[in-house]
Amino acid sequence: MTGGKSGAGLAGALLLVAVLAGCGGGGAQEVPVESLSAEQIFKKGEVALETDNDPEEAVRFFAEVERLYLYSDWARRALIMQAFTYHKDGDYEQARAAAQRFLDFYPGDEDAAYAKYLMALSYYDQIDEVGRDQGLTFQALQALREVIEQYPDSEYARSAILKFDLAFDHLAAKEMEIGRYYLKKGHYTAAINRFKVVVQDFQTTTHTAEALLRLVEAYLALGFEDEAQTAAAILGHNYQSSPFYDDSFKLLTARGLSPEAKGNSWLATIYRQVIKGEWL
Q1: Has residue 215 got a pLDDT over 60?
Q2: Same domain, 163 and 199
Q3: Is residue 32, in this structure, part of any structural domain at all?
Q4: Distance between CA atoms of 179 and 58, rounded to whole angstroms?
Q5: 20 to 30 Å CA-CA from 145: which of 17, 33, 208, 255?
Q6: Is 71 within a domain?
Q7: pTM of the model
Q8: For the CA atoms of 237, 239, 241, 247, what is the dihedral angle to 10 degrees?
């Protein structure tokens, strides 16, 4: 009797230990995701992302929602969250793929603008240094333009416009960097070609005034005084208070020249456009 009770008590104690161990983190049996509702799986993804800071696990849960509850409202929300999570984790290629999939499945959805914006950001956020390959900058500009044109009334349009201007300025900065290098090395024709691109194609950026000054320097070095004077005249018309204009004025006066439009070069054409108010 005593031994029996003792044995029963031991068995009960062991059972209790086993139960407690099962409740612990190490021995817990994870509930199959298939047995959870779409909302429950989605919330697990949110917890993994926001609380656990585990984007890979978050994406796994969001993908499960999409797989198990395809075309449901939760699947739609999970798909845009996949794009967001990938982007937050710096996996820009996967972010674009998820965002594009969202646009393919839900082109008229209220989150379509955000999906398009995420695609643009996935290019834009990779633009970091002037010296980097500018292919990404061109792709960012194209994607940002699509946000602006396709969703002009969305909350993302204004941000896209600001980022578009910065990316556009980035391309001009690259041309300036190369142009300065050629100028420093005495490759004046090559330098002029780069500064010409800035003046003609990136005239609304912050680099135009300097590009005009560098054109004055390069043309004077080659002995093309008409072009140098005309570049300075454009600079004086649009940026008279700029230190770049002061520098160009000093360069010309040192040679007995003055800023004025002369000749029939491409700069003379631009000067005429400036006077007519067609180019600012």
Answers
A1: yes
A2: no
A3: no
A4: 47
A5: 208
A6: yes
A7: 0.73
A8: -100
Average pLDDT (186-192) is 97
Specify if 221 maps to a domain.
Answer: yes
Range of the domain at 71: 37-169
Which amino acid, 6?
S
* Average pLDDT of the chain, as a whole number: 87
